[in-house]
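wait is this the right file?? whatever heres the structure
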């Protein structure tokens, strides 16, 4: 079992190292996984403008149509997401108003500007290193057998997963706030207010306290955005 644990740790480490390489040199690999078809002209223009307003080189960021992989991994109802590219579900976003779509664009641009995906990779890399050190350094773990080692490894993975969830939730809030503050600064406070109205409608519909894995509840999102006005 110890060999299995080491293999898992090495695989996890390798995955994170590969991820760092992909972040800087392998955007095409991400695109082949999550969607390599360019987004429509509206999303191209709006995203490039948002990135430039965040002082990000828009030429270095791919703007793509999302395929089915992202929603399958993260969950249904995914409007958009970003790594070193930005992907949009244009069908799902098409059900929203133009102002709501624009808020989504600035939200994703904020993720890029704040370098959230590299931070996630760094967290996973650190978690992998910590797990490897624990198994190699502490005699109790190194010498444990069978079920004990399996439980310990699974507990380490669970703790890392909980930490990642909290990290991503905080990143989502940070992206919301950065996007909203820039839009207000640019005189587009109506876009932010429209998003707040949408959140209020969701809360009024009885879903304000629905638990979400990667986001704060709609009620919490509403509260941290309302204080901007």
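ok assuming it is, sequence goes like this
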């Amino acid at each position: 079992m110890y060999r299995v644990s080491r293999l898992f740790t090495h695989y996890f480490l390798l995955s994170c190292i590969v991820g760092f390489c992909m972040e800087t040199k392998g955007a095409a690999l991400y695109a082949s996984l999550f969607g390599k078809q360019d987004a429509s002209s509206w999303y191209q223009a709006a995203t490039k403008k948002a990135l430039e307003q965040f002082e990000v080189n828009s030429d270095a960021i791919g703007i793509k149509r999302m395929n089915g992989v992202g929603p399958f991994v993260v969950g249904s109802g995914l409007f958009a997401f970003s790594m070193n590219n930005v992907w949009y579900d244009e069908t799902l976003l098409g059900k929203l108003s133009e102002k709501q779509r624009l808020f989504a664009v600035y939200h994703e641009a904020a993720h890029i500007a704040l370098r959230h995906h590299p931070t996630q990779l760094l967290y996973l890399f650190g978690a992998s290193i910590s797990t490897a050190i624990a198994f190699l350094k502490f005699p109790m773990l190194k010498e444990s057998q069978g079920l004990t080692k399996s439980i310990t490894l699974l507990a380490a993975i669970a703790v890392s997963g909980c930490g990642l969830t909290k990290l991503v939730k905080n990143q989502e809030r940070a992206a919301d706030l950065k996007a909203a503050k820039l839009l207000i600064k640019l005189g587009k406070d109506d876009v932010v207010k429209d998003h707040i109205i949408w959140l209020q409608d969701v809360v009024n519909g009885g879903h304000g306290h629905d638990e979400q894995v990667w986001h704060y509840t709609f009620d919490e999102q509403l509260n941290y955005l309302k204080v901007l006005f």
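The first strand starts at residue 62 and ends at 65. so i think its the right one actually
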